[in-house]
Amino acid sequence: MNLLGWLVVGLVAGALARGVTGGGWNIGCLGTIAVGVIGGLVGGMLFSAAGDEGIGDFGLRSMFVAFVGAVVLLALVALVTGRGSRMRRGRFD
After folding, report:
1. Residue 23 pLDDT
2. Rounded CA gap, 9 and 3, in Å?
């Protein structure tokens, strides 16, 4: 996949992951792309470790792998920074 493909997959996967994990991430467009691209790497490693293929050609499967990795990445960041507990308290108080 070329650079433009990675940027598009990163933007879509990062935006979807931000929405799934609460949507309160104020990281902007470049941050969203970074989350998606790093998520693509994380997702590729996870899928490869599970015996499946990582990110391949540009397509829906690559977006799904990047999305899964981006959700895992944002969940880990929320866990480490305590962001998830603040978000839960705000919703249920």
Report:
1. 57
2. 10
